[in-house]
């Protein structure tokens, strides 16, 4: 089997990579929207916040049999590499996934990292592959989807009013997609609240957010053609940023929205800011992105508070993923 590393500018290999990924989605997770060459190119060029994964395509006998990604971050968690191994359904159980995984693990060792992580859908194939290669299940993430045609605007408005009555000391601020330079430090401090989200048994450290990373996140999404809508809760008396929620809308497929972080700073919890932010975002999107038909979100299965808010707003489970990790030390 030949494993080829490539870049985002190699349109032919990107298209073949997407074909393998979509074959896997159709087979393993038919509820997922298919990848597009445009979206894959943007992600491979810009990543989530300026640190894109390294992509690989595995071929055997003239066939594209697997696709992989190797991703490391340099802001934090310098001990770990995150791996993706997708084997085309037509070429499984022939050792291709094992060979690709071993190549990615070798690359991780060469980079001086001491841990590898990855995820897979909650099925026997993922669990058995992980166990066979010494990975342990460390967390469960759940994908939920909100169909906006089924969400009653009157319900959203009522829930928003109820939350606003409890959170009278706070105001909602609709932020520009690009944060002004002088506001980046306080934005980074507020964004760090996401570190309180459950990580279950994963061996990972808190993420480090600074002004540079906030800007990199914004620029990466702009480069990918994604409009960011960031709604912030601000304490009226002190001006402190108390929490946020962010939705990304891909201009290639503007009927689809993706939920990014929703978090509330610890010192400001207990005022129903999570519900205030989520309902406030739906009201905002109703005005500026009326074409959105659905929004996807992910939560740790143990994040009961955010799950309660999401289900109140009509989010329903579409998929369940398992996170695995293995020490190389």
Describe the structure.
- The structure is a single chain.
- 34% of the residues lie in helices and 31% in strands.
- It is built from 9 helices and 12 strands.
- The protein has helices at residues 11-28, 37-46, 96-110, 124-132, 153-166, 184-191, 211-223, 273-288, 304-312, and strands at 2-5, 54-60, 63-71, 80-87, 115-121, 136-147, 170-175, 226-235, 241-250, 256-264, 294-300, 316-327.
- Strands 1-2-3-4-5-12-6-11-10-9-8-7 form a 12-stranded mixed beta sheet, with helices on both faces.
- α3 (96-110) links the parallel β4 and β5 (115-121).
- The mean pLDDT is 97.
- Keywords: Transferase.
- Residues 1-162 form the N-acetyltransferase domain.
- InterPro entries: Acyl_CoA_acyltransferase, GNAT_dom.
Under CATH at level 1, the class of the largest domain stands as: Alpha Beta
Task: Report, as a whole number of angstroms, the end-to-end distance.
Answer: 28 Å
Average residue-wise pLDDT? 97
| CATH H level, superfamily name of the largest domain | Gcn5-related N-acetyltransferase (GNAT)
Number of strands: 12
How many individual domains?
2
List segments where confidence is low: pLDDT < 50 over at least 5 consecutive residues.
Answer: none
Structural class category? alpha+beta
> What gross morphology would you assign?
globular
Helix content bin: 25-40%
Radius of gyration: 20 Å
Strand order of the largest sheet: 1-2-3-4-5-12-6-11-10-9-8-7
Largest sheet: 12 strands, mixed
Second-tier CATH architecture of the largest domain: 3-Layer(aba) Sandwich
SSE arrangement, N to C? EHHEEEHEHEHEHHEEEHEHE
Number of helices in the DSSP assignment? 9
How much beta, percentage-wise? Answer: 25-35%
């Amino acid at each position: 089997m030949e494993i080829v590393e490539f870049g985002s500018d190699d349109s032919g290999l990107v298209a073949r990579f997407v074909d393998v990924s979509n074959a896997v989605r159709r087979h393993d997770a038919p509820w997922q929207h298919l990848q597009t060459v445009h979206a894959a190119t943007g992600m491979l060029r810009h990543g989530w916040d300026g640190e894109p994964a390294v992509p690989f395509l595995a071929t055997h006998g003239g066939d594209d049999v697997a696709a992989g990604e190797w991703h490391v971050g340099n802001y934090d968690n310098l001990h770990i590499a995150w791996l993706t191994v997708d084997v085309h359904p037509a070429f499984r159980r022939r050792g291709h996934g094992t060979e690709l995984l071993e190549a990615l693990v070798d690359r991780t060792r060469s980079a001086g990292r001491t841990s590898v992580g990855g995820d897979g859908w909650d099925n026997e194939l993922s669990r058995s592959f992980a166990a066979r290669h010494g990975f342990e299940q460390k967390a469960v993430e759940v994908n939920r989807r909100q169909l906006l045609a089924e969400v009653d605007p009157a319900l959203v408005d009522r829930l928003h009013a109820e939350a606003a009555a409890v959170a009278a000391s706070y105001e909602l601020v609709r932020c520009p997609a690009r944060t002004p330079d002088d506001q980046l430090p306080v934005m980074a401090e507020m964004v760090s609240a996401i570190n309180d989200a459950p990580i279950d048994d994963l061996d990972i450290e808190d993420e480090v957010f600074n002004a540079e990373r906030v800007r990199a996140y914004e620029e990466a999404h702009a480069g990918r053609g994604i409009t960011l809508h960031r709604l912030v809760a601000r304490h009226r008396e002190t001006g402190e940023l108390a929490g946020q929620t962010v939705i990304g809308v891909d201009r290639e497929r503007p009927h689809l929205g993706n939920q990014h972080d929703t978090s509330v700073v610890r010192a400001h919890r207990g005022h129903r800011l999570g519900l205030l932010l989520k309902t406030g975002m739906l009201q905002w999107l109703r005005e500026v992105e009326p074409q959105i038909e659905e929004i996807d979100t992910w939560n740790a299965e143990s994040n009961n508070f955010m799950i309660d808010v999401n289900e109140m707003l009509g989010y329903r489970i579409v998929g369940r993923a398992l996170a695995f990790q293995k020490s190389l030390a």
